[in-house]
Protein 1
Amino acid sequence: MKLMHGTLLLLLACAPPLAGQTAPPAELAAARKAIEAGNVAYKAAFLASDAEALARVYDAGGARLNEGGKVIRGRQAIARDVARFLAEVGAVRVGIETAEVWLVDDVAYETGAWSYAFHPKGKAEQRIGGRYVTLWKRQADGGWRIWADMGVPGT
């Protein structure tokens, strides 16, 4: 409940800048296309059990909020954390359904629904999912990487 409450507070804090957002349609479309490609790479990395590939989807200073509310920051730390998860559960089929994308300056705010399906050794297939907020940061080369990834399990 604390995790969900914190995420809701973050969304409320972002609401004023997002409400005034007036990104040109072409710029927003380009950001959405880059985010879609990033999500494809994210899903492929989990399916291949490739924690290093997954970490490359993140900004060098990017952060990932774990299920227990722990923030993992930086590509190397993200790769180590995801590698531990993958060692326990094996390949993960990821679903990402983007609901909205807002663009404010060099940050894109993506919301939607996520799901993971995996089959740990000796156990039945497990499915988890919820809602998410992901902040994508425009890179110096014009590309987009995840700056902050916040999933809310069970929502």
Protein 2
Amino acid sequence: MDTMRLARAERADVVDLLASLTADQWDAPSLCAGWRVRDVVAHMYSYDGLSLGGLVGRFVRGGLLPDRVNAAGVAAHADHGPDELLALARSHQQPRGLTAGFGGRIALTDATIHHQDIRRPLGLPRNIPADRMRAVLDFARTAPPIGASRRIRGLTLVATDLDWTAGGGPAVEGPAESLLMVIAGRRGIAEELTGPGQPTIAERIGS
């Protein structure tokens, strides 16, 4: 599977969404706690232009704490308006640096999750292509920054709209996109899932 191609396609779809947003939508809350849509966009591309030294420096300044490291990336683009952020997104459709890791899977997974972080609160649903969805579900389960292991441990995840199953134990069933967002720890989405394992994962997420 050419996951770098999938990453480019997902980032292109993000650009199309951003180009359609109003000024109010750019400032609307996202599913990422404390971040507006514009903050999510700044975060998505904040790692692409970093050299190895710049990446190390950002992690040091953030005290190696993911939330603080990510906040530093958002702060670096705090003075960017929607037009500048859209231009940033357009110029970074090819993943570079850290986001190009694992054959583009980092960029693909990050873009797919954050795409939904923007769309869901705005009431803008989409159909995510099945090849992207499978690749992202597989990677998101084990990617350390997502921290999914503590949420899905001892559970079987079953997509009801896609040929995808993973794990072992009581089943958690639902649409692939809902499973992804729960894997990523987004609150308020576990209610979209069913199965004997649903109460467990809902409790672990806190929703």
Protein 3
Amino acid sequence: MATIPTQFAGVTALTKANVYFDGGVISHTLLFPDGSKKTLGLIRPGKYHFNTGAPERMEVVAGTCAVTLDGQTAVNVYGSGQTFDIPGNWGFAIEVKAGLCEYICSFLA
């Protein structure tokens, strides 16, 4: 199981929220001095589909989500402390059945 960060120091936090699916998914962007970017967010119960530009790593901070990559039938369930990667220029469905799923999304390229 991965070690999920509990805080980030020395970053710029953008105050404008990224709001998707009428508030079903909300995140805030963090900009790092090295030019990298992450978002911190939460997902309300529901099923959502996202497309990526750059490869992404999702780290589940709290809660549970079920993920299916486009073109696959396998559903993988991730909980607190687990991570999964999504290729660049790809899509995935993510479902939260109950509660909130809190996450950190790192843009890898």
Protein 4
Amino acid sequence: MRVVVQRVSKAQVRVEGEVVGMIETGLLVLVGFASKDGHDQLRWMAEKLWGLRIFPDAEGKMNLSATDIGGQMLVVSQFTLYGDVNRGRRPSFVGAAAPEAASPLFEEFTGLCREYGPVAEGNFGAMMEVELINNGPVTLILER
């Protein structure tokens, strides 16, 4: 699984003009799944994301997690994280899990994330518009 996580002051996702998920201070998580992904990767990533010490402490050092600050998480499915452009100019998505496999992974992942704190989410497979206000900016790429 591949994740791009951004520390945000605010983020929201819209489908057909309607806001379907919104958070204040916390993490915007774009997540893509591979066909080999399973429960172990999902559990590891949920724990890792909520425990990442990327929020500033009183001295301005990245020393606090989303859990520490009472943050929220917005999770958006993003199969294009598996886009391979090593050959040619058009991305290949053969590394991404098929929608039939990725949808239950997305549901399980968001459920695991909810064990640690409040989670909003986009609509799996929908054309989504994501709007965010970076806090930093701080952007990390994680893979498991």
